[in-house]
Amino acid sequence: MDEPVALEVRGLSFSYGGRTALNDVGFEVRPGEFFALLGPNGGGKTTLFRLLATLLPSPPGAAKVMGIDVRADPAGVRRRIGVVFQSPSLDGKLSVRENLMHHGHLFGMRGSALSAEISKHLDAVGVSDRARDRAETLSGGLKRRVEIAKGLLPGPDVLLMDEPSTGLDPGARRALWELIARIRSERRVTVLFTTHLLEEAEGCARVAVLDQGRLVALGTPDQLRAEVGGDVISIASRQPAELSARIRERFGVEATVLDGTVRIEREQGHELIPRLAEAFPGEIDAVTIRKPTLEDVFIRRTGHPFWLEGR
After folding, report:
1. Do residue 34 and residue 173 come from a single domain?
2. How far is CA 113 from the centre of its chain?
3. By C-alpha distance, which of 249, 251, 243 is closest to 269?
4. pLDDT of 1 higher than 50
5. Which of 13, 39, 154, 207 has the fewest CB atoms inside 10 Å of its own CB, making it the most exposed?
6. How far is CA 8 from CA 37, 52, 64, 78, in A?
């Protein structure tokens, strides 16, 4: 028997007026999976998030959550998802517990059962000691924890999060992802999140890479990095275009110029570096070598840097 699908996107396209935000995007997310939508600003991540969260009307049959068509039965989808928005959704004048109580009421939760669920979720995210405090008195990291508790309160099968670490310092960001990993493991909830931070996507099970509304890569981080393979050599030079041409001619390797730097992908890259230094003395200002990252995957698939001026 085939494994059920938590999220299914098929040939999804969407436009705002004359601007295409998504262009024939398709992928599946398995139950319990930790899945990232990675891309630069303007890549289409938030549009896709909003479609899955039923905040925008999708084409018929283009998106399903737990087998429910997002367009045909948005109310049914909402009963199966929890949502954490990029922008804060807490009422600062209400206490932490009051915020969750009102959220529970929206899902028909009442009385002692709701109170018990609130206590359980606040304890799970580590803010039970701040339950009576006004939300506006919490730090950014603690507010994010309360937002996650809100999203999990109705017991969703799928948790959707739009750039949840926005505005957090590195320590709070690390604590947030440790919390999400623990909750996902304990409850086997499916988590899909959007991010423009490459290091966040590195920690997920699979990643879908979006650029200008197109799905340009899909797989585990290891699978995607293996596509590049070997080492990535970056060479600083005062005349990068001329140097890259001479490297290609002399050594028969593919050398490209990206952001004014000569870039080479090659197995055993450390063996090439001394040969380059000997062949082109005085033309090389600096050389670095490293293993491939998801940014290298993005560059290989799109032909341009992750961040482009004027996006």
Report:
1. yes
2. 34
3. 251
4. no
5. 13
6. 14, 10, 5, 15
The amino acid that residue 98 corresponds to is E
- CATH code of the domain in which 216 resides: 3.40.50.300
What are 194-244's pLDDT values in tens digits? 999 999 999 899 999 999 999 999 999 999 999 888 899 999 999 999 999
Residues 169 and 28 in one domain: yes
Indicate left, alpha or beta for 227 from its phi (over 0: left) and psi (-120 to 50: alpha).
alpha
Q: Quick check: helix, strand or coil at residue 160?
A: strand
Host domain of residue 273: 230-291
At a CB cut-off of 8 Å and minimum separation 6, what does 262 contact? 234, 235, 236, 237, 240, 243, 244, 247, 255, 256
Residue 92 has, within 13 A of its CA and on its CB side, a CA count of 6
Nearest-CA neighbor of 218 among 39, 91, 97?
39
Same domain, 49 and 187: yes
Rounded Cα distance, 48 and 55, in Å: 10
CA distance 203 to 102: 33
Burial of 53: CB neighbours in 10 Å, binned 0-12, 13-18, 19+: buried
Compute φ and ψ for 14, nearest 5 degrees.
-155, 140
Q: Hey, what are 101's tokens?
A: 């109580």
> What pLDDT digit, counting tens, does each position of 22-64 carry?
999 999 999 999 999 999 988 999 999 999 999 998 888 899 9
pLDDT at residue 2, as a whole number? 57
SS3 233: strand
The answer to whether 197 touches 204, Cβ cutoff 8 Å, is: no
With the CA atoms of 242, 245, 250 and 255 taken in that order, what torsion angle do they form, in degrees rounded to the nearest 10?
Answer: 120
